[in-house]
Specification:
- This protein is of the alpha/beta class.
- It folds into two domains: 4-173, Peroxisomal Thiolase, Chain A, domain 1 (3-Layer(aba) Sandwich); 175-304, Peroxisomal Thiolase, Chain A, domain 1.
- The protein is 32% helix and 26% strand.
- Strand 7 (148-149) and strand 8 form a beta hairpin.
- The longest helix is centred in the last third of the chain and has 23 residues, at 198-220.
């Protein structure tokens, strides 16, 4: 399929709370802080409200793109605490954004890996309609739930990130071109208790990451040696090392530019990290972005473009 252009990146997150103020046990705190995490983003607004603010900023940044051109909103979330968050509130949200006639497609089952299937949906829809899509990923930890991802590999933040996806310049201020998306799943992983079999689960996850990366690279016709940057989820140092090894890429090429400030922003890690990498990378630099859900993983091969 044709390349997919991404541009007009934006985000809306909760307020930062220092890691030391969360009341974590010493084991979790040490494992997370050793990986470079400094704060967690805690929101008082709903995932829908966060998404609206982010999406509005994307539309404002989408140079020359009339909202009426946008055929579809691809909405990635795993936050279903309130029914209205995936029914009434979304209809009101898209109407308020001037997208009351746009189709809305929900991407949910990939959890923190939702960005993979969401991008696949965008690519298919843009190819079918010839019109751009608005992509948003938004999540928040439900009240009373633990933010720690066992076995102390990450800690969850609240927030939304968005971009415009289109063919070529239709994406508005395109800075990233998606060449391919690889996905892998292993639903047997849910049978494991991460508090008991955490390391086994992490090893299975790493193999899933490797398979998704391999599929993405093969589909793009590229080798791991061509990858300038490996963009990993905002996990701790041990997990990053394991993922990089499985992808066959040395740690010197690994980047997690929002790790310290954002912690793990569910599926939005990729959407918040890509624009920062695009701003500093050379034209045509190849990025392999990784997303990891509980049992679904994605590898995304991107090319940085300047002034497309």
């Amino acid at each position: 399929m044709a390349d997919l252009g991404l541009g007009a990146f934006a985000a809306c997150t909760g307020a930062p709370v220092a890691l030391g103020e969360l009341g974590l046990d010493s084991g979790a705190h040490d494992a997370l802080s050793a990986g470079g995490m400094e704060s967690v983003l805690v929101a008082t607004r709903t995932p829908v409200e966060l998404a609206v603010t982010s999406a509005r900023a994307t539309l404002d940044a989408a140079a020359g793109v009339d909202p009426a051109q946008i055929a579809t909103v691809v909405w990635g979330t795993t936050s279903f605490t309130e029914r209205s968050w995936y029914t009434d509130d979304i209809s009101h949200a898209v109407t308020g954004l001037g997208l009351g006639q746009a189709d809305v497609i929900g991407v949910t089952l990939g959890e923190c890996g939702n960005i993979g299937p969401a991008l696949r949906a965008c690519r298919a829809l843009v190819g079918e309609t010839g019109r751009p899509a608005l992509l948003v990923c938004t999540d928040a930890v439900r009240p009373g739930a633990s933010r720690v991802v066992a076995p102390n590999v990450a800690i969850l933040s609240d927030g939304a990130a968005s971009c415009l996806a289109g063919a070529g310049a239709d994406a508005g201020s395109v800075s990233v071109v998606v060449e391919s998306i690889g996905q892998a799943s292993n639903h047997r992983l849910r049978a494991l208790d991460p508090d008991v079999d955490g390391m086994r689960a992490l090893r299975i996850t790493a193999k899933g990451v490797a398979l998704a990366a391999e599929r993405a690279l093969e589909s793009a016709g590229r080798r791991s040696a061509e990858v300038s940057v490996l963009l990993l989820p905002n996990y701790n140092a041990s997990a990053q090392t394991l993922f990089a090894q499985q992808c066959g890429i040395e740690l010197g090429r690994v980047r997690t530019p929002t790790l310290a400030s954002h912690a793990h922003l569910f599926a939005a890690d990729v959407l918040t990290g890509l624009p920062l990498i695009a701003a500093e990378a050379e034209h045509d630099a190849v990025v392999l972005a990784i997303a990891a859900g509980t049992c679904t993983w994605a590898g995304i091969v991107c090319r940085i473009t300047k002034g497309w």
